Amino acid sequence: MTAEQLSHSDELPEAVPLVVGIGSSHGDDRAGWAAVDALADLVGNRSILRKAAVPIDMLNWLNNVHELHIVDVCQIDGDTRTLQPVYRWDWSVLPAAIGNSTQHEAQPIAALQTAKLPPSDRRVDVDARPQPEPIQSTADSSHSFDVLSVLHLAQQLGQLPERVILWAIPGTCFDAAAELSQQICGWLPDVAQQISAELRDA
Amino acid sequence: MTTERLIKVEALTRVEGEGGLRVRLQGDVVEDVQLTIYEPPRFFEAFLKGRPLQDVPDITARICGICPVAYQMSSVHALEMALGVQVTPQIRQLRRLLYCGEWIESHALHMHLLHAPDFFKADGGIDLARRFPDEITRGLQLKKHGNALLDVIGGRAIHPVNVAVGGFYRLPKVSDMRALIPAFEWGLDAAIQATKWVAGFSFPDFERPYNMVALQHSEEYPMNEGAVASSSGLNVPVTDYEQYFEESHVAHSTALHSAFVSDSNAAEANAANANGSGGIYHVGPLARISLNRERLSENARQVADEIGFVTPCYNPFKAIIARGLELIHAYEESLQILRNYRPESEPRILFEPRAGEGMAATEAPRGLLYHRYQIDDLGQVTFAKIVPPTSQNQKQIEDDLKQMLPGVLHEDDQITTDACERLIRSYDPCISCSTHFLKLTLERR
Predict the structure, then answer these.
(1) Do A60 and B114 touch (CB under 8 A)?
(2) DSSP letters for B92-145
(3) Pairwise CB contact (< 8 Å): B14 & A54
(4) Which of B73-77, B183-187, B262-266, B424-428 has the lowest mean pLDDT?
(5) From the candidates A142, A146, A149, A151, which should be mutated to test the interface with B, based on the most B CB atoms within 10 A?
(6) Cβ B16–A143 below 8 Å, yes or no?
(7) A32-36, B65-69, B279-283, B365-369 — which is least confidently predicted?
(8) Which one, of B435, B90, B9, B32, lies nearest residue B247 by Cα?
(9) Strands B356-364 vs B257-260: parallel, antiparallel or unpaired
(10) ipTM, 2 dp
(11) CA-CA distance, A111 to A109, in Å (whole number)?
(12) How is chain A classified by DSSP, letter by letter?
């Protein structure tokens, strides 16, 4: 089954990791979907792949999921000269306030919209990858719950998988109906490899 | 000695789009209330000019991510009037089904995650989910059903792509429609439970003598067709809408305000103005139900009777109950269509472009949505006018606040602010939709 076909089914065949790419058809916002497509050849039956247009769709797919990987685009606030192909956060070690403050729930935040890079632009190895802090920013719409709010909601509803990993690909152009940038296209094989390496069996 | 007190809400929470509130008080006297809309104007009416009419449904759908179907429906009906196109009964029915999907999606989300938190002093939907996990899970499931229906009929849940002038680009498959039935059977019962849940909330004792305005139809609960009616006695074809309602620009809002025409010769408009309301009127679920209660589905009417929902209902906070009743109706009507669906006609009526003018009004989740278009003989748009429901409710919201404030002024600013926000949220305002047009006057010196 293709990732798109799977997107229309709620039933997961077995307890395997779920990878959800979030995006739209506007420029670098395609990154999440493109990452899922790049993963399709690598993961085989080791994981279920889904594409979502809005983060809240994820709540439909969490039944029997022990591990969730979310891939989305982000915008970088900081020195953009040394961008990494993808940034990674483990939900369990994110500050509790991220995505859950009253103020920011009152102003719902955009999905992984901004990541702050550490000031140093030195190259770091994979094991010591910088853990930039996802910064909340105001979203355009309270009808469109962002990724972090959806995860908090899933937590409150007892639906959050044991392990949740957030992957954010830095994007720069989000023009309506624009194609994915060449830079992100070039990063996708590396991104897919990194995500694939982290998928764990139940 | 009187003191001046200024209450400002820089950014309203849990509403669609960006808006604020400014209230100026002199002692206990409310001097001024302004619902400040500062979301940038979006100029849809301007950039529709020169576009092929076939592009209009897809462009107007992007006015709003939560009610795209409403914009598509108002646009196609107006353009079909201009073209003299008559759709088949099946196309008509599928359009109602599409609208059911939008009502389900929008109402379920607003009821559970945006409005219900106010009744429990919860910070938001996530906080409420901690206290009512089963109810919130049920609400999210209802929203999912709405999305699924939009996906099957409209081709996509967000900004449907299957709506065309003349009908649809393709008819849905029988198998896809039948596959929805089990979920919708569950959903009908869930909608009934959800409505009974919200009907049990504790509602502020606050009523206003609204002049309700909505479509009214002789045979069905209105979605895409009907006369424009009001509780002050108006009942006119949609083609006469602009004879009775006018828009105006106010300095504190990038969204236009609407009111009954002040100098109309029509008795109905004068009646509306004579009640001292200043031409203000109320659109949305309360107005629809107040004017069309007997055309709700059987289960919706039964539940309304069972919970003692009185119409006309003049308490804006009880709009959450009206949304619940419309949820029930949408599920019941959806099931009737899903069970009996057989592709019988061509997906759309073909047409030749011709010059003309057309107007239409449909009932968006938030209320009456009016469109008017002029097209040339090449089929290009030469004029567009779009009047969203939230624009039409802005004056009513400000007036409600003016009346409500004296009762809460003795509280501190935070409590007063919260009360104002809760009142605004009861309207489920879509500020993003309402900022579609700005009149620009250039003064050259």
Answers:
(1) no
(2) HHHHHHHHHHHHHHHHHHIIIIIIGGGGGT-SSHHHHHHH-HHHHHHHHHHHHH
(3) no
(4) B262-266
(5) A142
(6) yes
(7) B65-69
(8) B435
(9) unpaired
(10) 0.72
(11) 6
(12) --HHHHHT----SSS--EEEEE--SSGGGGHHHHHHHHHHHHHTTS-EEEEESSGGGGGGG-TT-SEEEEEEEEEEES-GGG--S-EEEEGGGS-TTTTT-HHHHHSPBPTT-EEEPPS------GGG---PEEEP-B-S-TTS--HHHHHHHHHHTT---SEEEEEEEE-----TTPPPPHHHHHHHHHHHHHHHHH----
For residue B122, the distance in angstroms to the closest alpha carbon of chain A comes to 10
CB A61 within 8 A of CB A10: yes
The dihedrals phi and psi of B229, each to the nearest 5 degrees, come to -125, 160
Three-class SS state of B21: strand
Strand partners, B35: B21
Chain B residues 380-399 with a CB less than 8 Å from chain A: none
Binary contact (A153, B126; C-beta < 8 A): yes
The average pLDDT across A181-193 equals 94
Q: What pairing do the DSSP bridges indicate for beta strands B227-230 and B213-216?
A: antiparallel
**Two structure tokens written together for B312:** 């006309």
Sign of torsion over alpha carbons A27, A30, A35, A37 = negative
On whether any CB of chain A is under 8 Å from the CB of B157, the answer is yes
User: Around Cβ B15, how many Cβ atoms within 10 Å?
Assistant: 23
| pLDDT (mean) for B358-386 | 96
Q: Please report the number of interchain residue pairs, chain A to chain B, with beta-carbon separation below 8 angstroms.
A: 64
Reduced to 3 states (helix: H, G, I; strand: E, B; else coil), residue B314 is coil
Helix (H) or strand (E) holding B214: strand B213-216
What tens digit of pLDDT does each residue of A110-167 get? 334 444 433 333 333 333 344 445 444 333 344 557 788 889 899 999 999 999 999 9
Report the pLDDT value the prediction gives residue B21, as an integer from 0 to 100.
73
Location of structure tokens 């009821």: B111
In what helix (H) or strand (E) does residue B29 lie, and over which residues does it extend?
strand B29-37
The distance of A145 to chain B (nearest Cα, Å) reads 10
Q: CA–CA separation, B319 vs B386, rounded Å?
A: 24
